[in-house]
Amino acid sequence: MNSMLAEWKSRDFLVIILFLQLIVYATTFFNVLVARQVIGFIYFTFVPGFVIIKLLKLDELDGLETILFSVGLSVAFLMFAGLFINEFCFLFGVSKPLSLVPLMIILNSFILVGGVLVYLRSGCVKHFKTSTFGLSPSALLFMVLPVLTVLGAMWVNVYENNSILLFLIIAIAFLFIIGVISKKFLPPKIYPLAVFIIAISLLYHSSLISNSLIHFGSDMPGEVFAFKIVENNAHWSSVNPYPGDLSVGRTYGMLSVTILPSIYTKLLNLDIIWVFKTLYPLIFSLVPLGLYKIWSKIINAKYAFVSAFLFMAYNVFYTEILGLNKQMIGELFFVLLLLVILNKKIRPINKTLCFLIFGFALIVSHYALAEIFLFLISFVLISLIIMKKPSRNITLTMVLCFFAIMFSWYLYTSSSAVFDAFSNFGEHVYSQLGEFFNPATRGQTVLRGLGMEAPPTIWNMISRIFAYLTQVLIVVGFVGVITKRSGIRFDMEYFLLSLFSLTFLAALILVPGLANTLNMTRFYHILLVFLAPLCVLGAETIAKIVSKRKTELIGSILLLVVLVPYFLFQVGFVYEVTGSDNWSVPLSKYRMPAYRLYGQLGYTTAYSISGAQWLSNNVAVEYTQIYADFWSRRTELRGYGSVYLGYVETLSNTTKITTKGIVYLSSLNIIEGTVIGDRYLWNSSELGFLSDLNTIYSNGGCEVYKNMP
Question: Of 325, 109, 79, whose CA–CA distance to 216 is shortest?
């Protein structure tokens, strides 16, 4: 792809940076709607990293790698520069460093200095030719998918009609089928675009389904809560704002959901909810693109495309992870670190520098991914030492540096909440080792995956069959690699990473309590980074056993027979068209049980949001005992009202309201008549004590009561 690069004179490059900065300053300070958001996001999410690439003279990167590294280095730059501004602006009397003026001036100054250094060091700067991304008819068809996504989400929001989204899903499946069968329809040069378009379409079909946040049972409300602390102070502190609360502390210690969104909200004048619902998924859509790049160097481009589709087809990609903003950013750096490690063309000094930058960025983005990555590279390094096969890609120095940075950050920030959380997780797993023969300690997801939980319907059973088939192909693919029947030889580092992933997956099943430390579904999503290509190779291995001729065609047909139905079940399409119980919010929210939609999945209404914000603005929450049901306290009050969970007690039908206590009832309680407790559900009519309280707020879908003395 280097042939796709042209050159600027370094002087022209500096002029372009100055011109872009002028546009950004103008659109920002005149607050030009849309232009400020679009131009600002592209500028701050690409240009800083591109400048760093030119400073490091990473000319060995091809076009796709340049895009990925530019975004990764830019996001890392925003976090690190934001941390620098946060810590040192006080020396110059700036009491609110994370506000618009200091951020705009200092960030642009850093970028400009980088451009000047590039000008002084280089005679020319390579860039993309305008024809690099020329659009073919097939590419134009893929470009229609995001349009269908946005229209479909709007159609559901306004008319509660999912027909456009159903058509979108069929279109994705159809284009994937044609793309796998016909290289003429989808030539390899279009694969990266196809992967990116499918990724953003799947992500946006879930994230845009509501104007409010949907956490899908994940941590988004807690991330918004941590961000609001930073936003209100325009400053991030390394001290846990709620000492002793590990849940708040470990999130607050992650710059990916504190400093990074603070920069985006200030520079782009965009509400945090829309930063998390639109910008973060857009950045996250580069993860399967990065995986495609990694896999295309190991297996052929077509198989890499199919592997990326499998990674995206698994529903966690466009559900749970959308509620984990720190993991979305963390996965970007996780994949970039793999790109650095497995790229043999990068010079050793640049490999080390990129490893340190992306490694530190991963550490301050997501604690669990950082720990998993440390285990991965440690396993590979120890294995290579034992086999006496030294590697230039993973060295002892790299592992020790990552270890030192990780534990230093986790020990000395946020009152060591992350480190304490690690210790608690370890103690939890250790305490359950005595229950080795008790299947219940593995968690419900593991039991379901092992077939120890009966499927509720025939459609669920069929869905599990296709899921099992993908796993069978993964195992066959690994055996094929070992026995060399697949025709693909992995690099030693990638082979060991795949081996560790399979071993880790077995440990999640065998070791009591381990799967529950992060969540089994998320673990499997991460392990697909290494296992997805094995599924494709498994189909190829079977094809070679079946026939010595046309093995690629037979393998492709086998993959389509397995992966297309797998995708249609995972995305909820089959459940919707058959009228079965469905967990897909975009497709089935109109008929979903209220306790699941408003509770477990975190859908909320404008009524509930307004009530939570009113309570936060009109009640001294830190001095008041507040009562709300289990999910209202975690979603609306924490995410929108910025109310600390420690101030809110879970409501039940036996709750004794203290003097001057406040009761918050959301739309789930008022409109749907359901109250969710820690373990049980009640009808709102069972809250008889409400008749003794005074209503102090009501908007028709949310009510706040107070116990008067």
Answer: 325
Dist CA 176 CA 306 (whole Å)? 8
From CA 206, how far away is CA 661, in angstroms rounded? 37
Note the pLDDT of residue 133.
Answer: 45
The C-alpha torsion from 227 through 232 and 236 to 240, rounded to 10°, is -70
- Alpha carbon distance 602, 391 (integer Å): 46
Q: Which of 586, 569, 582 is nearest to 214 (CA)?
A: 586
- Is 343:394 a contact under the CB 8 Å cutoff? no
| pLDDT tens digits, 570-579 | 999 999 999 9
Would you say 521 and 448 are in contact if contact means Cβ atoms under 8 Å apart? no
* CA pair distance 91, 106, nearest whole angstrom: 14
Q: What are phi and psi of 664, to 5 degrees?
A: -110, 125
Strands 694-698 and 681-683: unpaired
The Cα 387–Cα 371 span in angstroms is 24
Q: What are the CA-CA distances from residue 247 to residues 57, 70, 252 (Å)?
A: 41, 32, 9
Lowest mean pLDDT among 131-140, 315-324, 666-675: 131-140
169-206: per-residue pLDDT in tens? 999 999 999 999 988 889 999 999 999 999 999 999 99
Is the pLDDT at 550 greater than 90? The verdict is: no
Instruction: Please give the model's pTM, rounded to 2 decimal places.
Output: 0.93
User: 125 forms bridges with which residues in the sheet?
Assistant: 8
Distance CA 502, CA 481 (A): 13
Report helix, strand or coil for 664: strand
First and final CA of the chain: distance in angstroms? 75
**For residue 132, pLDDT beyond 50:** no
Identify whether the C-beta of residue 320 lies closer than 8 Å to the C-beta of residue 522: yes
Tokens (6 digits) for 683: 């009808």
Alpha helices in 259-395 (DSSP H): 259-268, 272-274, 280-284, 286-296, 301-313, 325-342, 348-363, 367-386
**Residues whose CB falls within 8 Å of the CB of residue 470, separated by 6 or more in sequence, listed in order:** 310, 535, 562, 563, 566
Integer Rg of the chain from CA: 26
pLDDT for the residue 514? 60
Q: Which neighbouring-strand residues pair with 9?
A: 124
200: left (phi over 0), alpha (psi -120 to 50) or beta: alpha
Distance CA 182, CA 502 (A): 32
Q: Which residues of 174-211 are buried (b: 16+ CB within 10 A; e: fewer)?
A: ebbeebbeeeeebeeebbbbbbbbbbbbbbbbbbbbbe
**Burial zone of 698 (CB within 10 Å; 0-12 exposed, 13-18 middle, 19+ buried):** middle
Query: How open is the CA angle 217-260-57, to the nearest 5 degrees?
Result: 125
**Dist. CA 327–CA 281, nearest whole Å:** 11
